[in-house]
Amino acid sequence: MSSAAKFSLLMHILCLTLCSSSLYCHAFTSQEYSDALEKSIIFFEGQRSGKLPSNQRLKWRANSGLSDGSSYHVDLVGGYYDAGDNVKFGLPMAFTTTLLAWSVIEFGDSMHGEIENARAAIRWSTDYLLKAATATPETLYVQVGDPNMDHHCWERPEDMDTPRNVYKVSTQNPGSDVAAETAAALAAASIVFKNSDPSYSTKLLQTSMKVFDFADRHRGSYSDALSSAVCPFYCSYSGYNDELLWGASWIHTASQNSSYLAYIRSNGHTMGADDDDYSFSWDDKRPGTKVLLSKGFLEKSTEEFQVYKAHSDNYICSLIPGTTSFQAQYTPGGLLYKGSESNLQYVTTSAFLLLTYAKYLNSNGVVVTCGTSTVTAEKLILQAKKQVDYILGDNPAKMSYMVGFGERYPQHVHHRGSSLPSIHAHPDRIACNDGFQYFRSSSPNPNVLVGAIVGGPDSRDNFSDDRNNYQQSEPATYINAPFVGAAAFFSANTNH
Description:
With 496 residues, this protein is mainly α. The chain has 18 helices and 7 strands. It has 2 domains: 232 residues, Alpha/alpha barrel (Glycosyltransferase), CATH 1.50.10.10; 225 residues, Glycosyltransferase. Helix content is 48%, strand content 5%. One of its GO terms (molecular function) is cellulase activity. Belongs to the glycosyl hydrolase 9 (cellulase E) family. Keywords: Carbohydrate metabolism, Cellulose degradation, Glycosidase, Hydrolase, Polysaccharide degradation, Signal.
């Protein structure tokens, strides 16, 4: 039996095992996972800022932010709105881009007809990040829009009239966290475009190196430099060391340049290599860095990367019930639960890391060591599948938390463009405060934000489909990005 046939049989057994152990079983088909994959990428089109292309699929959106940066004499048109508001926040946008790129790097072979759309989603961001990184020497533009003013309005991005202030980090006001994450995004994307657009790939990698050098030479947190413009929205709570190690790891992965390997060797222990951290998010990159670098140890027996394999094991073991290192919290319905605000962001990142690590282990015939017990790659895939399936509707509420997927999904999403009539349906401008009548309305959102994964249910599997409850009903780009990779994996590795 070929390895592919063995893997197919394994997935079939996993599906049967999962169904026999679940009270809410719905065995999703590969076609359903493919549908979820397609929709998870379409979502990014709903978050686009700038001039929309002719092949835009979410037709209720239109051009917005066409003069972003102009009053500062820089071109900052494009990029993504992070969630349900109209601000372009650089740190979550860059992290989203890194995770979208990583999804394609690991699982692009399973994306089939969606690979071009996935690349387009990445490029929409990298085109913007390139401009933000190269507009002015020794400067990185990291945000467009005054978040405090923006959050006082409920208006469509097409109608925005709140200040489009531009925020930057520089040698005098450093932001190593946002700069190193931007470097990671550009480096990871350079791998994605290496074959399809070599010159673009080279530009991405060269810019990545310059931005990383800037981040490393001028150290400081962007939260200190920009204070109320980024806090409490996207404060860098974990500091910037995790981003510096993450950025160096991605540039090393993309370039195989020995100087970045030397950087990781010299700085790893002071930048989080020795920490066990159990939460992978836009703020904290440590678990992701360890999984990424563990590949070097597994494939090349690079001895200094052994520590990353050991800490990756610790992270993975923390998620697997029954191991001596288990410490995660799960809801009664089986959903990983980390926090009351946008909890599904932690679910999608952990599912992605479980699948990526399983891939690395499978490729090298290795298992996870959890104290005295061992956990196989198959067990990691099973755990990831439970999380993905829960999001798609295999849960106590029998509700899909991806908008537009399945028969029942959130109707009152905390998202300005989705909740207000489109400019096609209502061409007249809707002013700042006039939008709140739609925010408070009990009617479903008039525009379906296809593919958006919302914040999700609470620790008891309860979900409030309420625009006012942004903790549960707001989508975000960084929730979707790792899910793209997970959906791709299951679309290709699940029996009908």
